[in-house]
Amino acid sequence: IDSKQFEKILKYIRSGVENGATLETGGERLGSKGFYIQPTVFSNVQDGMLIAKEEIFGPVQSIFKFK
């Protein structure tokens, strides 16, 4: 990925945290060279959150509860 996509993915991760999703793992830059991001997993994601509505082209996974 390039720097633009890298920043976009980090924006989604910040949005998830700010909107109340639980960051289970990851969410940080991986290494100091290149544009690598740790595999990231969110739980307690709600339908109205940006990370639930947008397709994130990066290592970000959201877990939803359902009944």
From TrEMBL:
<protein>
    <submittedName>
        <fullName>Aldehyde dehydrogenase family 2 member B4 mitochondrial-like</fullName>
    </submittedName>
</protein>
<dbReference type="InterPro" id="IPR015590">
    <property type="entry name" value="Aldehyde_DH_dom"/>
</dbReference>
<dbReference type="Pfam" id="PF00171">
    <property type="entry name" value="Aldedh"/>
</dbReference>
<dbReference type="InterPro" id="IPR016163">
    <property type="entry name" value="Ald_DH_C"/>
</dbReference>
<feature type="domain" description="Aldehyde dehydrogenase">
    <location>
        <begin position="1"/>
        <end position="67"/>
    </location>
</feature>
<dbReference type="InterPro" id="IPR016161">
    <property type="entry name" value="Ald_DH/histidinol_DH"/>
</dbReference>
<dbReference type="GO" id="GO:0016620">
    <property type="term" value="F:oxidoreductase activity, acting on the aldehyde or oxo group of donors, NAD or NADP as acceptor"/>
</dbReference>
